[in-house]
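re: ur question from yesterday

yeah so i grabbed the chain u mentioned. its 251 aa long if i counted rite. heres the sequnce exactly as i have it in my notes:
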Amino acid sequence: MQPQPGIAPTTPPTAGTLFAALYGELTPHAWHDPEHDAYQLFYQRSLAMGWLEEQTAGGPGLWAMNDAGSHPQAAPGTGRVSWFQVEAGAVTAERPLPVQQFLRCAQDVTARIGTLRLSSVRVLLPVQGIDPAARPACAAVPSMLTVDWFGARDPAARTPVDVRIGSGRDPVIPAVGCQLAQDLRDLEQDVFTCGDDDVAVHGMTLRGELAEWSCDAVGWLAATVADCAARLGVRSPLSLTVTAQSAAGGL
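ran it thru and got these structure tokens back, copy pasting raw so excuse formatting
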């Protein structure tokens, strides 16, 4: 890593900031101790699963802890019930952005605090941390290697969803939106089946079905979108919001 102003030469490379917010209803468990807040629980869960980058020990990991919070008293159905922010580690050539693990951890933590009725998930994806040229031919879209995990699910679990993808002030998504939607359709997977798409000035919306309504499936889709976008030349962060078209049960 070349020295740069304000950056120590020994600083490990990162992919960028990974942020997630869960929306819906959260009924706190009667036994929940507020001392075990979202930050503490996320740290502990990340550490237990080997996902946390412990800088002091020099151990490998998928992210470094930044911040987290929960809002159990949010308005039913629409409020943000929890949020999490980490610094994602550098993405290796054959692995996707760790969005699936990140959202799995977020769901586990939220469920420790209360019973979650999830309506929507929003994620900030550091697409700039992906180098498509470094991907091996066998893992051009690395998340495709794990599609069979969702193939083992009950077909009745499929859930209609709306997927909103935005690039902020960068007009790149409107420019590549139609091709991005087609690339997702061309993948040999049914974790997300893409139906209609609508490209607008500030982003695009995809309508389709997820194999199941879970943070696990949303994370897989987000990582796949990030890689497909990077292959189309996107080099800026993307926001992705997945919303269930019908009420979801407790997670």
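noticed a couple things. Residues 1-10 have pLDDT under 50 and may be disordered. also The beta strands are 14-28, 63-70, 79-89, 114-125, 159-166, 192-200, 203-210, 238-244.
anyway ttyl
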